[in-house]
Amino acid sequence: MAVHEVQVFKLGIGDQFRTLTDREKRYAHHMARSAWFGARIILRQVSPESLPIFDFILELHRTCSGNWRSLIGPDVSSENLQRFQTYAATFLSNIGNYYGSGDQKFIPGVDGTVLHNLAARSPTLAGLYKEISESINARPPFSLGHPSETAQSSYYPSHDVKESDVTMVSRFLEQNYIFLENTRLQKTDDGTGFEVLVASVERGDVAHFSLPNGKGSVRLVRGDHSSDLQRVCAELKEASKYTANDLQREFLSAYIESFQSGSLDSYRKSQRIWVRDKSPRVENIFGFVEPYRDPHGIRAEFEALVAIADNEETKLLAKLVENSATFIRRLPWATPENDGKGPFEKDLFEPPDFSSIHTLAYCSSIIFPGINLPNVSLLAQIFDALLAQTDSSLQYNDIRQEDGFKNVIIANRMVAESQTKQYPFIDASEAEQFKKHKFPAYYWWVVLHELLGHGTGRMMVESIDGKFNFDIKNPPVNPITGEPIMCWYKPGQTWTGQFGDLATTVDECRAELVGAYLMCDPELLELFGFTEASDIRAEDCEWLLN
Q: What is the mean pLDDT of each run of 10 residues along the chain (546 residues)?
């Protein structure tokens, strides 16, 4: 589809940045630079043409010194320039030529003649346009997905990788305790085997396997995104000179170790340390985090966020955190055992670090309103045993269950969202009332989505040494069937591995429904300040979500 209109919003951060000390500002600065160096990784993960389109936009901006109006002339009209700028803004916002939400391809609202005329401004532009002239407007592909006549995925750079190939190789590697969040998969040039491209600064083969039943071989090859990760690591090293505490130095060191070597074990180590860095003034998220865009639901997109905490807003969130156990007991699957929470919740709900933050740099294809990390998919260590050629005592208990997690609400993103001007399905007579209630209802729904949607639940797990985190002789009762559960996570199995391309859909739907369900709780809404006597009433918030 062609992009014809776009709304642009500023993520205001100046007031928060001015509250930082000089040391904190330097830390935030280098962390933000590191974050943006990850943009080219995302572009490479989206589509083959995303990188040259990105370079074309930046080169055109450089050529006109930021004075876009100077490009208007006999061969480029004001209207066509506006259409190209709309496309460029949409591209940069999504970091690629597919929507971050929905994964549909979008194309410029101008034809190739206009793009050719813009490219005539410099030899560099002309060369870049030659690379993208066919692909920028090509449809199909229409969307991201398993490579086919109608879809493409740069997680599988060779277009001849079939869905059955992905399933076979992924299952084989998972059985060998090799996990794939920071990888891509392609066929070898001769078509007889596969290469797993591991994101790392270091280059070279890691290991070679023969697939069962004579179906070829698999090589693990380090060095994917090498030069970009090198820049990411360089700025992380600079940031480490200005950390506020030892924990920050330690998780930055683990980030660097992971990005250098490709080790997901080092990344898991970073997350265990990161969750212990409570309520920092400058918060961050780095790594191959969300598997939303992999059609197989395993490989994760790079993401980097640097943000500044809002202490006053965070105090409001603390009230909910303190009362979390009360509302967990009101979830539909709660039963009397386990202190009223039932067997599908942890024995002890350890309140997470819950902060309201304002983003300074957010390098991602989607600007999320709230985030809950570490992800449930980070259940396994990767191939360090292969690197060291030794056995490894692998632990498969979830970091979240062992070490906890963090929730962040991205306040300046949500403020921008509340300023959207389009209410196409709202009657004009209700538009003002809708606008008044939209932000608080949406804000608290996201809060509940993150804290009690993603933050609750217990995975039933069998460890590699045959131990269970539940009573195997008296298994929990399935609330749907009324019978004891018959399956659980076996050694080496992960959430994403079992649910495949439905993993994130199921998880997000669950979190959305928990948030919506609890938004109907009068006691909880009163905790937020909404009663029948308040300006925005409790029933108004409930109505807006139904």
A: 86 95 99 99 99 99 98 97 98 98 96 97 98 97 96 94 94 87 95 96 96 93 99 99 99 99 95 94 96 91 97 86 93 94 86 89 95 62 34 43 83 83 76 81 89 90 91 94 94 80 87 93 89 81 67
Q: Quick one: CA dihedral 67, 231, 353, 250, positive or negative?
A: negative
Backbone phi and psi for residue 112, each to the nearest 5 degrees, phi listed first: -65, -25
The answer to whether residue 232 is domain-embedded is no
Beta bridge partners of 361: 306
Nearest alpha carbon to residue 85 among 129, 52, 127, 118? 118
Same domain assignment for residues 199 and 64: no
Residue 129's domain comprises 48-144
Q: Is the dihedral of CA 84, 85, 90, 94 positive or negative?
A: positive
Catalytic residue IDs: 450
User: Pick from 93, 111, 144: which residue ends a domain?
Assistant: 144
Rg, Å, the chain Cα set:
24
Q: What share of the chain is helix, strand, coil (3-state, %, to 5)?
A: 45, 15, 40
The CA distance from 153 to 529, in Å, is: 46
Query: What CA–CA distance (Å, rounded) separates 195 from 187?
Result: 6
345 secondary structure, DSSP code: S
Angle at 58 between CA 49 and CA 255, to 5 degrees: 75
pTM of the model: 0.85
Are both 140 and 155 inside the same structural domain? no
